Amino acid sequence: GVNLDKLMAKTGLVTLDPGFVNTAACESDITYIDGGAGILRYRGYPIEELAAKSNFVEVSYLLIYGELPTAQQYEEFADRVRRHTLLHEDLRKFFDGFPRDAHPMPVLSSAVSALSTFYQDSLNPFDRNQVELSTHRLLAKLPTIAAYAYKKSVGQPFLYPDNSLGLVENFLRMTFGFPAEPYEVDPTMARALDLLFILHADHEQNCSTSTVRMVGSSEANLFASISAGINALFGPLHGGANSAVLDMLEGIHADGGDVDSFVNRVKNKEPGVKLMGFGHRVYKNYDPRARIIKKTADEVLEKLGSDDPLLDIALKLEERALSDDYFIERNLYPNVDFYTGLIYKAMGFPTKFFTVLFALGRLPGWIAHWREMLDDPARKISRPRQVYTGQAQRSYVPMDQR
Ligand code: ACO
C-alpha cells in the first residue's frame, strides 16, 4: 500500500475532513453498518436476530471475543462478570464528594477514571491476563457505579450487589431496591432493559468509540480510555440525545402539545431547536434499532401500565416529520433514541439518568474496540493533521507598544 506518512512529507498534502465524514481511521472486524440499507450487524449477526434471540451478556462476549460463546464459555464469562460487581469500599466515598444534584454522567466518568487508582493490578494494556481482568471488572462494576450514582441523587442508601442475580436484574435491584427489603425484579422491565442494552452495545466508529480508541492509542489503560468515552457520550448530539428527546417532548407538552408549531420552529432553524432523536450521520434511510424499539415501546409501555401523554406527542411528531419535505429531503428519520427515553421514563428512571443507561449498553463495544485497536499491527498513535489558517510569521510587540 501507499505509505501516507512519506507521501505527506514529500508533497505536504493533507485531507481536510471536519467531523471525519469520509475518513476511515482504522480497519475493524466488529460491527458492520450499511447506512443506506439500514443494516446493522455485530460480528456478522443481524441486530434483529440478536435482539430476538440473545441477551446482553452473550452479546458482550460476542463483541469482545468475536464469536458466540459455547455454553461453558458463556457460564465462565457470566460468572466472572458476576463476581467482580463489588466496588472498593473507599470508592463509595467518591459519591459523597459530588453535589447531590450533579449530573450522573460526570459522576460515572469520574468513578471509572478512579478505577485506575484502585485496581492497579490490571492496568497494563500488553498483559493479556490484566486486560481480561480489567474487562471483567469494568463490565461488572459499571452497573454498580451507575446504581450508586442514582441512589446518591435521590438520597437513598446504597445497596451492595447481589451476585446471585444476572447483570440487568442486579442493576435494577441496586437502583430501585432498598436494604433489608425484598425486591422482585419485574421480568418485563428486565427483558426490555436487556434489549435496549443489546441495541446500544456497539455502533462502530461513533464519537465515543473513536474517543476510546484515540485515548487508547496513546497506550492509556482501559479504565482511562473508557472514562474518556463516557465523557464523549455525555454530549447532547450523541448519548445525551435520549434525555434531550424527553426534554423536547415535555416542552411541547407544556406548550399545549402543539406539534405543528414546534416542527415549524425546527424548519425555521431557530437556534438550538432541533428535532432531537431524528437524524444520523450514517443512517440515511432508517435506523434499524429504532424499528425494533418502536415495536417494543408499545408493548413495554402497555405492560408497565404507562399512559404517558408524551408517547402521543412522540407519535404525532414522528408522523408529522416523516411526511414533511424538510425532513424527507435531508433523510432525517427517527434514530435509536427517539423512543428509548419514553421506555426509561416508564421504568422509573429520571431523565438525567438516560445517558447513563446508554453508557451501560455501549460498554462492551468500547471494550471490544479498545482491545482490537491494541491488537492491530498497523496501530499508530492517533494524531490528526490540520490545515493552519492563522497568522503568518510576525514579530513580538512589547506590551507598551500594542
Ligand atoms: N432536526 C432538524 N434538522 C436536522 C436534524 C434534526 N435532528 N439533524 C440534521 N438536521 C439538518 C441539518 O440542519 C442540516 O440541514 P441543512 O442541510 O439545511 O444545513 C441537514 O439536516 C444535515 O445535517 P447535519 O448536521 O449535517 O448532519 P450530521 O450527520 O452532521 O449530524 C446528527 C448528525 C448530529 C445526529 C444530527 O442529525 C442531530 O443533531 N440530530 C439530533 C441529535 C440526535 O438525535 N443525536 C443522536 C444521534 S444517534 C446516537 O448518538 C445514538
Automatic annotation (TrEMBL):
Q: Which GO terms describe its cellular component?
A: cytoplasm
GO BP term (any one): tricarboxylic acid cycle
Pathway entry: Carbohydrate metabolism; tricarboxylic acid cycle; isocitrate from oxaloacetate: step 1/2
Which UniProt keywords are given for this protein, alphabetically ordered? Transferase, Tricarboxylic acid cycle
One GO MF term on file is: citrate synthase activity
Substrates-to-products reaction catalysed: oxaloacetate + acetyl-CoA + H2O = citrate + CoA + H(+)
Q: Which SUPFAM superfamilies match?
A: Citrate synthase (SSF48256)
Tell me the active site: H280, D337
Family note: Belongs to the citrate synthase family.
Please state what the protein is called: Citrate synthase
Q: What's the source species for this entry?
A: Actinopolyspora xinjiangensis
